[in-house]
Amino acid sequence: MASAHSRMRCGEFRTTYQADMTIFPTPLARRVAIGSVLLLLLAPLVLNAYYLNLMIQIGYYGIAALGLNIVVGFTGQISLGHAAFFGLGAFTSAWISNNSGIPVFFTIPLAGMLTMAVGLIVGIPAGRIKGLYLAIATLASQYILEDFFARADWFTGGSSGAMAKPFSIFGHEMYTDQSFFYVVLFYVVVMFVAGANLMRSRDGRAFIAVRDHYLSAEIMGINLNKYRILSFGISSFYAGIGGALFGHYLGFVSVEGFTLVLSIQFLAMVIIGGLGSVMGAMFGTVFMVLLPEVMEFGVYLVGSDNTALTQALAYIKEMAIGLAIILFLIFEPDGLSHRWKMIKNYWKLYPFSY
Amino acid sequence: MRKALLCGTALMAVFGLATLAPAADTIPVGHLACYTGPTSDVGAPYGNGVADAMKYINENGGVAGKQLEYETVDYAYKAPQAIATYKNWVSGLKPVAIQGWGTADTEALVQFVARDEIPYFSASYSGHLTDPTGKSPKTKSPAPYNFFYGPSYSDTCRGLVQWAAEDWKAKGKKETPKFIHMGANHPYPNAPKDACAAYAKELGFEVLNPIVYDLKPGDAKAQCLTLKDSGANYAYLGNTAGSNISLLNSCGTVGAKPQFLANVWGWDENSIKAAQESGDGVAVPLGSPSWKEDAPGMKTVRAIAKVSDPTGDTYRNLHYMRGVCSVFYMKDAMIAADKMKGGITGPNIKKGMEQMVNHVPAGLEGVCLPSTWTGEDHRGTTSVQVYTTTYNGGDFKFNKQSTIDVPRRDDWLGW
Q1: Are residues B227 and B190 in the same domain?
Q2: In what order do the strands lie in the sheet with B283-286?
Q3: C-alpha to C-alpha distance for B134 and B112, rounded to whole angstroms
Q4: Among B160, B106, B169, B167, which Cα is nearest to B326's?
Q5: How far is B189 from chain A (nearest CA, A)?
Q6: For every one of its 354 residues, what pLDDT tens digit does chain A have, with 9 covering 90 and above?
Q7: Mutation test of the interface with chain A: which of B91, B94, B190, choosing the one with the most A Cβ atoms within 10 A?
Q8: Rounded CA gap, B368 and B359, in Å?
Q9: What's B330's domain CATH number?
Q10: CA nearest to A44 within chain B
Q11: Distance from B163 to chain A by nearest Cα, in Å?
């Protein structure tokens, strides 16, 4: 009987540079990736709305987190304004679909484009400043956009927020979790494959060079300004797509959803998941979305009759996120994707690990 | 209940079932509460009132023999969180009615509850929720499934302004009085802004530029200096009590002393104690008797309060009573719906609400104001009872000023 081992090669022999740059490191990894997407296609038939809701959340946050990982993990910049771009995508898509009659199917990529344009502008300081100074500059963009959302009645509905139409394709509206799941899955696959591909390209390698040592990169002929700003642009595109999906899923977009806290949560996702890893963005998002749910489940298991405990639940959730970030920084600074690699290596050498 | 739901969800996932059907002999009700977040100071007593009342109903035979299966979720005053909870409920709990809270989330949910036909009893008294058909030219979108107990924010503010005009005359002042709206840039304080300013103008006030102060309590001296410079005589406070306490303290410090007119959530027993001298004389609309008063219906309220505090010693403030009223109007509508074809469903509860004429729930006489809802007008009542508060070193008093029946003008519907 053919075991998994016989289908997995006993080593990775890369004899060409092309082989070193494939999206999936091994054929098994490729098969697993395709297989899990196929399995996910069946999910709406099996899972109830609660689980689908969590998976949809993971989907749109994951896309945005990958965007942030491109700017933070791959290019070595810092952004504290990612939530504002996420919000901009949501408002833009809602605004276009409400005011122009363009179906939501097209407004989502349009929102991504517009968010990217704004991201390119906001990224301009990144060409000039680094580190803490850049952190403060992006913080400013977070506040400017947030204030804009709260006041621009024509665009966002002001503090009351805006309604977002359900996703529609050929006049067919998809507002149930079951159908919207496929929309999100489609975007997750496209955006993650694109993200993985980007890192294999000339531009992706330039990002990494800028991150690793900007002086050497410049000496090698990489235009630092161009790549730093481009990285912000691409990151905003991802945030815009994620935000637009969020808006059309919820059906309502309000400025309250896109505060600095969400920006920090995106940062936490990429740190926990693993800086500079495409899959890490997804791992981190899964962790951050499920953590509060697990805490809630835990609290109700321990004492559903204990009112003090259930009323403290909101605080327990917040504290758990803080604690998780600290614990990861101490014990696993390379994030979940590194842990995942270790697990794979363990099984690769099993049972003769040294 | 929540545990059962969660375990049930987990089990069903294991067995791969797709739906979570509620048991047939219970009435599923959602309860969105604000126990944390910027309005929790008044959200907690109101939420406790709602929860205690539902528990009390269950302990006393339920509604038409059926138990209320309610689920309380604290959404921390975040509208997106409220919408997400609502979506979860629609696919899981499948509520036939919802007890809600804030203006931002209630107004955002208007179209959702209309589509899903779920009557929504909010603690937001926004005037935008009062037009079920959308006929009024001022209405942005019709709100067929929205109900609330009490005069709308706009009508309350109109009542206060009318009282202010009388007060100005009684004081024998000749010059034009100045009115100012104060509140956060948030749907709740904004709801009555234009409507009330228009009426104030009609009554001969000079309306000044509004002042924005935060819903979260904090220092507001800058706003108070602006208020002082503006020379306003009457200032409407659009925020909740906690925020108003800090504003009044700041205004006391800088010496800005107009006659403050608080909205229904903006002033209560706790705030008088906290603001002390700075809060002396604030005018406030009361929608219920206070805890120590002896209205006939207070006996029921005290029995309800024992649900969460068996000693009955805890002082419950005004918001608690309003939470109880909101639940009991819903209960009476459910009883009416039970006798209709189809039983207790969303549309029938709506019909049950809309046939109430000067209705006071049994057992709550003197606590809940007589209210009337029709298929074309969801302004339950427009009667505003204006009180002022006096602080005298550790103790306080509510002084009744007058009851103002704001006219039910057609062009004010939905505004």
Answers
A1: yes
A2: B206-207, B178-182, B234-237, B259-262, B283-286, B383-392, B395-405
A3: 16
A4: B106
A5: 11
A6: 444 555 556 666 778 887 777 888 778 888 989 999 999 999 999 888 888 989 999 999 999 999 999 999 999 999 999 999 999 999 999 999 999 888 899 999 999 999 999 999 988 988 888 889 999 999 999 999 999 999 999 999 888 888 888 888 777 777 788 889 999 999 999 999 999 999 989 999 999 999 999 899 999 999 999 999 999 999 999 999 999 999 999 888 999 889 999 999 999 999 999 999 999 999 999 999 999 888 888 877 776 666 677 667 777 887 888 888 889 889 888 899 998 888 888 887 777 766
A7: B91
A8: 9
A9: 3.40.50.2300
A10: B18
A11: 30
Question: Half-sphere exposure (CA, 13 Å, Cβ side) for A81?
Answer: 29
Q: How far from the centroid of its chain's Cα atoms is residue B102's Cα?
A: 8
Domain boundaries, chain A: 27-260
ipTM: 0.78
Interface test with B, best of A42, A48, A148 (most B CBs within 10 A): A48
Q: Which of A48, A176, A301 is opposite residue B9, by nearest beta carbon? A: A48
Domain boundary among B337, B354, B371: B354
Peptide bond into A351 cis (omega under 30): yes
Q: Which strands, in side-by-side order, build the sheet including B26-33? A: B67-74, B26-33, B97-99, B120-121, B146-147
Give yes or no for a contact between B345 and B96, defined as CB atoms under 8 angstroms apart.
yes
Structure tokens that stand for B6 in this block: 């969660």
Distance, in Å, from the CA atom of A349 to the CA atom of A80, rounded to the nearest integer, reads 41
Residues B337 and B265 in one domain: no
Candidates A54, A153, A160, partner chain B, best to mutate (most B CBs within 10 A): A160
Encoded amino acid at B338, one letter? D
- Out of A47, A251, A313, the one facing B112 most closely (by C-beta) is A251
Asked if residue B200 and residue B112 are part of one domain, the reply reads no
Residues of A in contact with B107 (CB under 8 A): 160
Contact between chains at B104 and A160 (C-beta distance less than 8 A): yes
Is position B183 within any domain? yes
Nearest CA in chain B to A57: B84
Residue B248 lies in a domain: yes
> Per residue, what are the HEC states of A125-180?
HHHCCCHHHHHHHHHHHHHHHHHHHHHCHHHHCHHHCEECCCEEECCEEECCHHHH
Subunit contact A314:B74, Cβ cutoff 8 A:
yes
Residue of A nearest to B191 (CA): A160
Q: Where are the alpha helices (DSSP H) in chain A?
A: 4-7, 17-20, 27-46, 49-69, 82-100, 104-122, 131-151, 153-156, 177-198, 202-212, 214-219, 224-250, 260-273, 278-303, 307-311, 313-331, 335-349
Domain count, chain B: 2
Partner residue facing A48 (CB), from B18, B84, B87: B18
The reply to whether B111 and B238 lie within a common domain is no
Contacts of B2 in chain A (CB under 8 A): 300, 304, 310
State the burial class of residue B116 (Cβ atoms within 10 Å of its Cβ: 0-12, 13-18, 19+). Answer: middle
- Do B185 and A150 count as a contact with CB atoms less than 8 A apart? yes
Compute the nearest-CA separation of B88 from chain A (Å): 7
Selected for mutation to probe chain A from B14, B103, B185 (highest A CB count within 10 Å) is B185
SS3 per residue for B238-261: CCCHHHHHHHHHHHHHHCCCCEEE
Residue type (1 letter), B223: Q
